[in-house]
Amino acid sequence: MFYYLAILTFQIVFNILKVFEIKFTYENQLQKLLINSVFITLVSLASVFFSLDRLFQGDWLVIPFYVCGSVFGKYIAMTQFDNPRFKVFKFLSNNKKDE
Question: Across the chain, where does the E strand assignment appear?
Answer without folding.
Answer: none
